[in-house]
Amino acid sequence: MLESYVTPLLMSYVNKYIKNLKPSDLQLSLWGGDVVLSKLELKLDVLEQELKLPFTFLSGHIHELRIHVPWTKLGSEAVVITINTMECILKLKDGVQDDHESGSSSTSRSASESSKTLAKPRRLQQATPSDPDLPPGYVQSLIRRVVNNVNIVVNNLILKYVEDDIVLSVNITSAECYTADEFWDRAFMDVTAPDLVLRKVINFSDCTVCLDKRNASGKIEFYQDPLLYKCSFRTRLHFTYDNINAKIPAVIKIQTLVESLKLSITDQQLPMLIRVMELALALYYGEIGAGQEDEREEASGHARDSIHTIPGLEGDAEAQAMAGQYPSPNLYLPGQEGDQGWVSWAWSFVPAIVGAEDEEGEEGFYQQMEGGGSLSGPQQHTPKDPVVSIGFYCTKASVTFKVTELQTESSYYSPQKVKSREVLCLEQQGITIEVLMMGEPFFDCQIGIVGVRALCLKGIMGVRDFEENMNRREEEAVFFTCGESLNSKGMTYLTNSLFDYRSPENNGVRAEVILDANNHKETYTELAGMQRFGAFYMDYLYTTENSSTKVCVGQQDVTATTAVKEGPAPAVRETAVKRLVVGPLDLRLDSSAVHRLVKMLACAAEHEYQPYAKPAPDPVVEPRAPASQEEVLALEEFVPTRLTCLTLLEVTVTLNMAEFNLLHTLLPVIMGEKAPPCPAAVAVFQPVRPLPALRFQVDRVNVEHSVPMYGPELTSTVASLSQPSDNLLYLCYTHCYLKVFGFQAGLTCLDGTGSFPPLTPLIPSFSTAFYGKLLQMPQYWAKRSSVPIMECIFELPHLTVQATRPQTLVLQAIVQSWTHSLEDGSSPGVNPALLSHIHAEPGVKSPSPSPTLEASVQNVELKFCRRATLDCAGGTLGAVKVCARTPVHSCTGLTHHRPPPPGSSDGVKEKLVPLFQGPSDTRELHQRRWLNEIRKPESLLAPDLLTFSLQIPRHEDDCRNSGAVLLVSVQGASVNVDPVFCTWLLHQPQKGCSRQQQAQAPGVVPMVMPITKRREDEGSVGSTPLARQLSNQASDYASSPVKTKTVTEPRPLSLPRKVVPSSTEAWTTSEEHMKEVIAHVWDAVKRLTLQLEVQSCCVFLPNDSLPSPSTIICGDIPGTVRSWYHNQATMPGTLVVCLPQITVLSAGHKYMEPLQELPFLVSRPILEEGDAFPWTVTLSHFSVYTLLGQQRSLGLLEPMGWTSTLAVTSHRPQAAGPDARHAFIVCLHVDLEPLLIKASNPQVQLLYELYLSWCSTWARLEKRGILRQTSTIPDASAGPAPSSPVRSSAGTAPPDTSTCSPSADFGSPTEGDSAQGGEDSLFSDTVTLEQKTSSIGGTSGKVSLWMQWMLSKVTVKLFAPDPDANNAEICVVSEAEDLSASVDVQDVYTKIKCKVGSFNMDQYRTSNNLNPEHQGNTLSQRPRATLFIQSNTFYPEQHSLSRATLFIQSNTLYPEQHSLS
């Protein structure tokens, strides 16, 4: 009879999972056709074994189980299994992070033993029945048909997970699984030729997911809104067989479609949801619940050995569980060794899905029973892995973020209720998740989204910005868009799915599956993915193959190639490539969006959950034997890596000016500080139009990240080699490439229609690139200082920044609206006159154009390298150019920084005024003859403006390391201090109308919002703004036409405050602060090898603008000046200051090229402190001259230079403690070349004009507050100003018994000495600088300073026209020779000494036909004077005493009959 075959089969499944069943009672009930079992307890150990996760079941029971078997219609009617009210409660195993392995093994043993005991009675019962009337083929066919058409119905399925204060529950009202025909309608089907297809459908109705918080007693006080409420979805299963006798399907497809998925998250649920996600990630990465390797291998082997079955639906309910095990494509991430367990765990569900777990024994039993034999052992062959395809599709999904509020009923004893307010919504359309795998050698996951948008809902933090009564458009609420909508894209996200009527499975055609890696990459390209989706596309592909072209099962570690085995193993090659593409996206960051996003971050930070896994300690470096030659060759041939590629297309980010700012109440919560108190009132929101905004646009961003799959094993193997190859070293790094194309930024504004006008560019389009690599496991390379730990390279071919003064003021207002806010949350606003420069209102005359400042940087290359002992940096800066584009009237040629003639209406052109040029050939500019010589144009192959190399030891305390090395070379530069720059800086827009006028004007909304009281029911944590402070515009509030609630308390003046308050540390005295700065500087330079080369910088100061002629190369300042000098009769007077060429060299250092390969070696490394001193500082070619009209050039200061020697020593007093500061001794000696100064009336007049012009500019800058502070908004939280830097050390220095420090100048008289010595006694110092440095001592931890200047001669020539004679002028020549000065600053005194050896003054008259520099007739004699000045100032404890000595010696010679000519 059929009962003898069907009954044991059904009983085996029921008895496996349910406790305390009597087989006799169950068998009798089944023979009656219906069985009803109530209050059944589940076998929890069996469920834990099936789940294979570190969870334990607290309880599990079934309220009612019904089984209906139509014995008379088994061939045409399905067996129905109904479960009513099934509930299971899970929790994480106790101590799962510590002793999970032992618990897991014990559970597995108990479960395996129970399964063996269950199998014995089943086999015994199966062996007893026998009916010779039924043919063998008929029994097998009937059993297959019965199993293929079993219907499973589950009503009221409840799953709960509890942890700490988290209660996660899933409730499914109804779930039904049945067999379907080719139209996916319910039918009784069987696998028949030629289709060889079986279809099944699972419908889930009213799925609800709740996430609540329980108290210490385990009770839930307030029930939150469900995360997911009454969501229905359907699943289609499609099995394809190779032949009618196949035991397992060749292709398995399981795909789920959700029409609408609406998720809701409150601020209290967000931390709990993040905790649940962290649990999933911890399980995924193997941080908890990582079982033993042998158990995973056993599970993997059992999954393959047991796949000999008739396809059934015993695991249909578990099929959905499998579909949820692949939500993320990152199944293999760097450094994770538990990936094999995850693949084996997921793959172990395949037999359950196809009903093959326990069918092998039954199939063998029937075959042996029908053949008259006995049971045979397990089969020896391994079947082919089926192709499994899992898909999840969602038409529309939304995630709503809510803020909860506690509400109390009117009665005192009424319970509190929780009310939620929707503030943020994320909507997605066309979501696709597809997984394709064949065993473990091939795995692919694709995720795509057609469209995404985010929008603001209702109000946030008391600001009613999107309430229903605001009548705002939906477009204003949307702040993020990406991709397209389904209306324009179509149903492309369902392409080739079981829900696509055009798919091969729905048209009776067998679908082709791509399982080749190369073919897969050619088919599923980034372009194809974006054409199908549009917003987001991800493709993760993992494959393994070996050289023998056989399917490789499982992953193979790198160390497996080095393991000693009995036979040679095939070389396994693993590849993992992840490609992500994000389509065109537009992100608008306004006040509403930013406050909602920051609010979510603040809510997410409010939790006290401990991490699931502690950070893993660094692995202990153990010595190992070097790898063999065969192992090295195998690694050279192939090393498995993981490659991640991210592409962003057409990214637009817009930062609007803040309409309200309450970030000071949220940022402290994110930073872990205490939340500020709730304010009593917040500003009433009113949209501001037009609203200025800063916009960033990027055409394309490419990011590539490459990392070895088995970094620790590979690194330890390569590190064991004495000389690893460059290829192996390259593979031991994590590499990252970043390329940005078409980045630009500019200003725009949001107008009243909700649109943005064209962008006003601030940064035109440019591209840049970055490369970095990081060594894996650097502890293995600690003893090899030559191996780089980290390297970074940055390249910037070209960057230009351009802006007018109004645009910079608008940009400043945008930034300050986010960094500062009035304490009621309102924005300070912006002058409407500024908006006219970026937004032209229709019918309003645009303002006169203002100069545009443009700066460009070219060829920037930077490199950073870190090694075990050194940090190195180097780079070049190709060129820097700054110019001003000045609008010029086409008719008059007047620039617009001067008002055009009235009534002029001609067009406006632009003139280019160069302001800075570098590099520039300034080698001959210190002399005036370059104006009359042919100047070569600037070469395109000119050297880089800046070249440097820097090398710093990482462990400075190690005496074996040499000091830092800095090599810098700066080429010449030209600066034109043109008046157009002052025009740009002083540009002042017209004053806008007052707020009262704005409020009265139709269609204009005031920039500052009125005050309203805050509702008391909005006291949610993390959403409270600061205590109310009112605006300083008291008169505006008094006369404002906007009616608000009357506030009776007085309104104090308030200033905008910073959003992120700075730390208020106590100010130390300026003397102590300066000593700390000196100590830090000394630590940086005490062992520094310095080589500095700075070419001359020529500064031109014209008293009128110097536009560049069209014939001159753009930005060539010397060429522009020379062109004006020769070709323009009205050249403005120009002062030329040629700054000196500077060279600084450390002691004993030989010249090196400034750009070196990193790292580099110096000829004389600095090992001890102070060995780098003295420094030799040389300055040359310093000159000043003037350029006047009519090709006249007159010198002011002839070229000169000087040489300096700087010595610094330091020591710590032995009697002081370890915290005592060093005592510094600084000595500076300067030898100056002869100084020649000339001046005439035109030059003095030019200097006076420039002085008046810059004084006027300076006064206007101070008046407007540009120089007083960097921000136009005062900082109310600023602390007290520091004390004066001039501070007496009285009371701080220890008393000194001597009247003069030992460092006093040699030979100088002390306080008790006589002051009658002559010249030789005062300035007869012959001691060298080294002796001077070694003799200066300091015991009080202070700073001692000694400086000396030596100048051989100073000549001053003054020219003026002779009032008594025409065509003649008078020249007065003053000469001073043998000048010297010294300053000695010690703890207790300061000494200043000056000396002038001789002083002469002559007067000459020159005629017009002579050179004015030649001497004429003598008008006065030649006096000689010697001047000595000495001043000593002492600082004792209670009083001060100063001494000054003045010696003047004058010798006048009166010749009898001689005259000088």
Q: Characteristics of this structure?
A:
single chain; 1461 residues; alpha+beta; 40-stranded mixed sheet; two-stranded antiparallel ribbon; 30 helices; 21% helix; disordered C terminus
Explain what this protein looks like in three dimensions.
The protein has 1461 residues and is α+β, with helices and mostly antiparallel strands. The protein is 21% helix and 36% strand. The strands form four sheets. The protein has a 40-stranded mixed beta sheet that branches. Strands 12-13 form a two-stranded antiparallel sheet. It is elongated, with a radius of gyration of 44 Å. The C terminus is likely disordered.
Total DSSP E strands: 46
Number of helices: 30
Radius of gyration: 44 Å
Task: Characterize the overall form.
Answer: elongated
Indicate the low-confidence ranges by residue numbers. Answer: 97-134, 291-343, 356-381, 549-567, 890-894, 896-906, 992-1054, 1063-1068, 1274-1340, 1410-1424, 1436-1442, 1450-1461
Structural class: alpha+beta
Q: Largest sheet, described in full? A: 40 strands, mixed
Report the portion of residues in β strands: 35-45%
Question: What is the average per-residue confidence, as pLDDT, rounded to a whole number?
Answer: 75
- The helix content, as a percent range, equals 10-25%
Distance between the termini: 148 Å
